[in-house]
Amino acid sequence: MLISCKTTLYKSYFLYYKYFPTSYNRIGTSDQEELMKKHTESLIYDMAFRVRLYIASKISEKKVGDLTDRESLIIELIGMKGSMSISEIGNFYPKVSSSTISTTITGLWKDKKLVDKKILPQNQRITTVNLTDEGRTVLEQIKKNQSDVFNTVTTSLGLSVEQKESFQSILEHAIGYFDEMLGLELNEAGVEVA
Prior knowledge:
Blueprint: H1 2-19, H2 29-62, H3 69-81, E1 84-85, H4 86-91, H5 98-111, E2 115-119, E3 127-131, H6 133-157, H7 161-182
Antiparallel strand pairs: 1-3, 2-3
Helix pairs in contact: 1-2, 3-6
């Protein structure tokens, strides 16, 4: 209800100032920016919620193996970055204990045979993790399932060619922001352009 009220309030202000722009407008630029920011946050939440519902409706029919979200993300991360040490993987999960990460990777290695673990000969304190052939097959299945979801989201936007170009630019900016915030330095090989 609160989101609906905020959305209605924003739309009211937006429409008023769009159709009745005068020097007598009492709302300042910073107020307009704040309203727009709140409305954008609300729209992102609403869209993310619907995408999560869509994913949940598809997961039961397209789930890849019996992987947890963390296991899937680790497989994707290794697929993008290539060989990684267990501590490097752990750096992407600052709120998760290193023993939990190690246990997760051991499960992917020992039980599911999706990764290989190797001790570096030059520094035996470091264990690196790589995808096995089966792990790469699972990664392709994960990407295929995600591609189906992303295709549905893209179609739902109904963008023209010009809008798609602008949207891609916005997404690239957002990706750069998150990469910087999370300290990600992903291989360009992991980036696919469709």
